[in-house]
Write a structure and sequence with these properties.
Chain lengths: ~325, ~240
């Protein structure tokens, strides 16, 4: 019998993986099912969910794999957004230049976080991620000539069909999720989890802890920045809300509820983003923050009963339990 | 000189954990380091591993100065260790835990895996590759820790109370394992141990540490003849027979 870590492809063909892949097919066909304007909302929802999958995967690399618990991941999302907008609006440059600038800028701050983490670990590192996020957000609000303060920057771009954003977002989510799964199984992924599990033992087995923490943080930062640029280009506006702690919290909650440290975690968890869009759609934008309250409640329930998230739910056993609960019990 | 410690001193506030400690280990030797609780044995290991910086003194390994190197570089130089309180990766399985060690010598995943599987079979853990560390017995945990340390291909292996907390069958199995490792992989050992039977059966030379100072260096069977050692460690009533 093979052990838990079987090689490559064969190991990936599991009932769960197949099931999810089959469920994704109807999503891909959304643009064909709805006619005209009716497709816009479902496509928008998918774009938002897919973007959160990518964001959550990047946080999952940093915090889930490497154990560097960040509360300021929106920083990189915002940097990507602002880099794109400033390049396009203020400097009249090609959006791709903005995208690249965002990646470089985020890599720099990722490097900075890596350097901080070599000095501060655990709780102290977490606090420093909040501090960094706050600094960047303050700059975005105060550096008016460049960022236009709380109004933010509105970008003008040629009209692009939403269907392109739709498929691009899905492609990104799939690519980054596969990248995560690949990373987890690679040498680097093993180094990351070794650091998370026991930093002293990792060191004594020759793991260069500072190097791998930095690499983890730079990878996470760069990819998160791409999402920021993407969403800014899509929505055509960037403002300090991109850097808001609420974004960071949402990223964390969907990952933890889905399953931290697992490739499927962000994929399952990000479906929760629909909840927020649903409330926004039915009750109005004013009630959208209500979603955060609901996320919080769901998070607490999961912490209590399923601390490893949705991925740890055993479908077969849950199904059997449900059947048993629903069948009338015989009198004793 | 293969491995040499010279004049290591470490103070914790007013407490002198290591006081001018000097010792050496020859290639292929098994050397014991014994002493009563709190004598400073583990502190000395932490200093060798680079977890703790000494106030003064030098550590040389194959004529290379290790004193200021970070822990990961000390491992790369060829020194591995196991800890008094078994250190493990709780949420990883046995195979990946050992692979963390083999990865430090190879970039290639398949090669790292193959090497890890070989070592796991060697230390008698085959069949448990997929088991999470959390689910293992103490004996298995200690063996995983030892296997992971071996996976880094050390020339010098530091074992801090590897035999503590094991029952007598497990102790003899572990002794056999250590001797087999020595025969086939040929590392050099420096061992902290309280179990006198182990010292007697595997060590070729012993240093005795007391209140941070080396008070004796001798063959294991001479321990009971040294009045200083008897007083400090074995107790006045120790009976050599
Ligand atoms: N980090 C530390 N801070 C303060 N004192 C320490 C520290 N580490 C060790 N000590 C003290 O140094 C002394 C030596 O401790 P050490 O753990 O090296 O002893 P040991 O010989 O390994 O004992 P044992 O046989 O109980 O494992 C003890 O008095 C201990 O309390
Ligand atoms: Mg000790």
């Amino acid at each position: 019998m093979q052990n838990a870590k079987t090689e490559w492809i064969g190991d990936w063909i599991t009932p769960k993986n197949i099931l999810v892949c089959v469920l994704i097919v109807p999503v891909l066909l959304i643009p064909f099912f709805y006619k005209g304007g009716a497709a816009l909302l479902p496509m928008h929802l998918v774009i938002m969910v897919a973007s959160y999958i990518v964001l959550a995967q990047t946080w999952n690399i940093l915090s889930g794999l490497t154990g560097m618990f960040s509360l300021g991941h929106a920083t990189f999302y915002g940097l990507g957004g602002y880099a794109l907008a400033v390049a396009m609006v203020k400097l009249k440059l090609n959006p791709l230049v903005g995208l690249a600038a965002g990646i470089v800028l985020s890599a720099f701050f990722g490097l900075l976080l890596g350097a901080i983490s070599s000095r501060l670990t655990g709780f102290f590192f977490t606090i420093s991620t909040i501090a960094l996020a706050q600094v960047i957000r303050t700059i975005a609000m105060q550096w008016t000539p460049v960022t236009n303060s709380i109004t933010g920057l509105k970008i003008f771009r040629p009209i692009v069909g939403r269907v392109y954003f739709f498929y691009a977002a899905i492609a990104m989510a799939v690519a980054v999720s596969i990248f995560f799964a690949y990373l987890r199984r690679s040498r680097m992924g093993s180094m990351f989890v070794a650091i998370r599990e026991n930093i002293h033992l990792a060191r004594s087995l020759g793991v260069d802890v500072v190097k791998y923490k930095t690499v983890s943080s730079v990878i996470a930062a760069m990819i998160a920045s791409v999402v920021g640029s993407f969403i800014t280009y899509y929505i055509q506006v960037v403002d300090p809300n991109y850097l808001s702690p609420i974004i960071s919290e949402k990223i964390i909650m969907v990952t933890i509820i889905g399953g931290m440290g697992y490739a499927w975690g962000p994929i399952f968890g990000s479906v929760l983003i629909l909840l927020e869009e649903f409330i926004r759609g039915t009750l109005g934008a004013r009630y959208a923050p209500l979603a955060s309250t609901l996320y919080g409640i769901i998070l607490i329930v999961f912490m209590l009963f399923k601390p490893n998230g949705i991925v740890s739910i055993n479908l077969k056993r849950s199904f059997a339990m449900a059947i048993r609960a629903l069948t009338p019990q015989k009198e004793k | 000189m293969f491995f040499e410690i010279e004049g290591i001193t470490k103070r914790y506030g007013g407490l002198v954990a290591n006081s001018n400690v000097s010792l050496h280990v020859n290639r292929h030797e098994i050397v014991g380091l014994i002493g009563p609780n709190g004598a400073g044995k583990s502190t000395l290991f932490q200093i060798i591993d680079g977890f703790v910086r000494p106030d003064s003194g030098f550590i040389r390994f194959k004529d290379k100065d290790l004193t200021k190197l970070p822990t990961s570089k000390i491992n790369k130089a060829g020194i591995a260790c196991t800890f008094q309180h078994a250190q493990l990766f709780p949420q990883l399985d046995v195979l990946e835990s050992v692979m963390i060690g083999t990865y430090c010598r190879t970039m290639n995943r398949a090669a790292a895996r193959q090497e890890a599987e070989k070592l796991i079979a060697f230390t008698g853990l085959q069949g448990k590759e997929g088991t999470l560390i959390d689910k293992l017995t103490m004996f298995d945990r200690k063996r995983v820790e030892l296997t992971a340390a071996l996976a880094t291909q050390p020339e010098l292996l530091l074992l801090d109370e590897l035999f503590a907390g094991l029952n007598s069958t497990e102790v003899s199995e572990m002794v056999d394992l250590v001797l087999r490792i020595r025969r086939e992989l040929k590392p050099t050992f420096l061992i902290i141990e309280h179990v006198i039977k182990v010292i007697m059966s595997i060590c070729e030379r012993v240093y005795v540490l007391d209140y941070g100072k080396i008070i004796a260096e001798c063959k294991p069977d001479e321990l009971s003849k040294n009045p200083l050692v008897v007083k400090a460690y074995l107790g006045e009533e120790y009976d050599a027979s």
